[in-house]
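=== Structure Prediction Worksheet ===
Name of assembly: unnamed complex
Input type: mixed (protein and possibly other molecules)
Chain count: two
Listed entries:
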Amino acid sequence: MATTGLISPAEINYIREGFAVGIRADGRALRQYREYLLGLDVISHSSGSARCRIGFGTDVLVGVKVEVSNIEPGEVPNRGKVVCNVECSPSTTQNWDSRAADELNNELTQFLHRCLNDYDGIDLEKLCIIPNQSCWILYVDALVLDFGGNLYDTLLMAVRAALFNTRIPKVHIEETGDDGEKEFDVIDDPEEAEPVPGWADVPLAVTLNWANQTYFVDASEMEEHCTDAKLTVTVNKNGHICAIQKSGLGAIPQKVYPEMLTVRIRQEWGVPLALWP
Amino acid sequence: MSTADLPDLAPFEQAAAKRTEATTGGETQLVTPGEPITSNTAFMRGHGTYVEEGVVISALAGVVERINKLVTVRALKARYAGEIGDVVVGRITSLAEKRWRVDLNSRQNGVLALSSINLPGGVQRRKSESDELRMRTFFAEGDLVVAEIQSLYGDGAIAIHTRSLKYGKLRNGTLVTIPPALVQRSRTHFYAIPCGVDVILGLNGYIWVSKHVDPQAIEANPEEVYSNVNDPITAEERTNVARVANCIRALSRQFIHIHDTAIVYAYEASLRFPISDLVTDSVSSEIAMEVRAKLQS
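=== Predicted Assembly ===
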């Protein structure tokens, strides 16, 4: 539900005091996620899609489209491409005017771009069809339909599920000339399509919010207003930390970092086995 | 990977179906946009419907209402339309000349005039220019107020007042937002739930759940009307507030009208569950079933 993005001093005090005694305003423990719904294959014309809704608040829809692209001179000759775009629907909250929404869109797009491109996640080399010539390009488009806090975690959950759901058509490669020149045909049969190579290595995020000398996960919208700083940790299925991003104006004491970085995705989220093997 | 390991493919559809199933048991008929209501030509189409090939079809997601031969659909998530005398909970969004603008979950912001508030200490006098200069000490942006609708403007905008000790700034609790259609007009909208929790049911769907404060203590201390500081709250009071708040969320998720009896029944039914589970689909439907059974008996 759209809100004004405002909070009263009494509410801030109530929520922050709640952190100190470990009772949150909605009765959760400090390290407890809200119930979430995950739907797969929600957009029929995409190569893969998913929608994740957490606690009847934040709602993210992700569509993945796979297309053939040319490898231009100067680009890495043997890698596919992933292009991300995140857009927040202006109806989500009243306080995101066009400029604030633009900034947020950029921030989230950058975050997603780094998560999908800058480490051993999706196997980009397997997305190459013919080196120096053609490759697959994955358009990952996310739409934030509703906001109720904890956008980063929900976004990555939806993206990972959409990649799990994505199928890339098989290609048939032929050598056409004596000089090693190659051509390829895309096989249209959907039965022949393959999963995204390395989708399982895409991480999930756990955002730890620092407030009132303690930290908690999965902040609701009101709780985000009461948070001093946020630490987003992305973890892959081997339990390795892939990225850490600190946001917010407050400081997190150095001595709590090691403790905060012990996040375990399965424990925090309770992820279904199929999505987190 | 076998299909058995896959997460539910259509949890959204399933959840929706479950909710419809739970609510069509009574006389209310829930419809979605495009759903045929009746093909009987004796009926006239009203608000929220249209006719296609002789069939009356819903244009909204809501409840079908029949008044004689007129068929209308009342939207479930419509914005709040006020009436004079309604008790509402609102949030101050901005200050203007001699008035505050208030978010009332309505189509447009409500107005709280400087002349429609009580001064701290209950002083009776006309508001002066110095009062205008310290308006932020009464209500600032973000503050929550409980108020009564004083009048309505021609375009449907709402003017509210807080000229009673019952009304004023809210403290010691948490706000729950539900569809306004679920709150019905009643004799009182201020309830003290026996577990030591106060509930203010704003007709605009904003519900304030807070720890119990003796009304006499407020009257004895009129200076505190505009305080921003919470009273000390014990862990027990805090858990009770959270439980009542989640009971209200659970009831609204199951489309049950929110009133004191429903809240008390839901509270009793909820005691065997952990607080945070109350808002899940499975537990909330279980609680809803118990509440419905008790309300009918």
